[in-house]
Amino acid sequence: MIGFARLLIGNKVLTNLTFILVLAMGVLAYWSLPRQQDPTINFNWIVITSSWPGASALDVESRITDPIEEAIQRVDHLDFVSSYSREGLASILVRFDDIPEHVFERRLGDLRREVNTAESQFPAEATDPIFIEITSSNAFPAATLALVGSGDDDSLREQAVLIEKELERRERIDRIDTQGMADPEIRIEFDATRLAALGLAPSDVA
Questions:
Q1: In total, how many domains does the chain have?
Q2: What's the CATH number where 59 sits?
Q3: Pair (134, 151) in one structural domain
Q4: Residues near 205 by Cβ (< 8 Å), separated by ≥ 6?
Q5: pLDDT, tens digit (0-9, with 9 covering 90-100), for 16-43
Q6: Which of 29, 83, 172, 176 is a plausible cystine mate for 92, CB 3.0–4.6 Å?
Q7: 200 phi/psi in degrees, rounded to 5
Q8: Nearest of 108, 92, 110 to residue 100 by alpha carbon
Q9: Which DSSP string corresponds to 22-74?
Q10: Which pTM does this prediction carry?
Q11: Which tens digit of pLDDT belongs to each residue from 71-102?
C-alpha cells in the first residue's frame, strides 16, 4: 500500500486516472442506491372507526367509543388516545410512543386483538372496526379541492359526487377522500287530521 502511494506521488498521470476512477465508482454507487422520491414515514398513529347508522352521538359514545377506549388501555406503549363520537360514527385516534418499527408492529397486533374482543359489546347494527395507519403517504393530501356555492346541500352534494367520479377516472390518483358530505335524509310530516280519520297513529305509519 505504501509502495502504491509512492507510485502515485511520482506519477501525476496515474494519480489523475486513479482519482477519476474512484470518482466514477462513487457516482455509479450513488445512482445504484435504492431510494424513493417520497419515502413513506410512519408516525405511529392509528385511526379506528366504526359506524352505527341511525344512532345518536350519545348512543355511539356509550355503545362503541367507550368499549374501544377501555380495550385500548390494555395495550402497552401508548402515548395518548383521543376519541370523537357523532351521529352514526365513532372515531378514535391512537398514538404510540416513539418505538422501533418491529415493536410498533407487535403493538398494532395487540391493538387489533383488544379492539376486536371489545367488538362483542357493539350493537348488532354496528360495522366492524376499521384500522388506518397514518403515514406520510396518506396524512398529507397532494391536493385539496373545496366546493362552495350558494346552492342547497343537495346541489352541492351532486356536484361533489360528479367531481369525485371524474377524478377517479384519472390515472395515477391513488385515493380520494371526501369530507362534509352528510348523508341525505328524508323528513316526513304527518297530517294528524287525516291519520285520525283513518284511525291510524304516527307509529303505525312508521
A1: 3
A2: 3.30.70.1430
A3: no
A4: 190, 195
A5: 677 778 888 877 777 776 655 556 667 8
A6: 83
A7: -115, 150
A8: 108
A9: HHHHHHHHHHTS---SS---EEEEEEEEEE-TT--HHHHIIIIIHHHHHHHTT
A10: 0.57
A11: 999 999 999 899 989 888 999 999 999 998 89
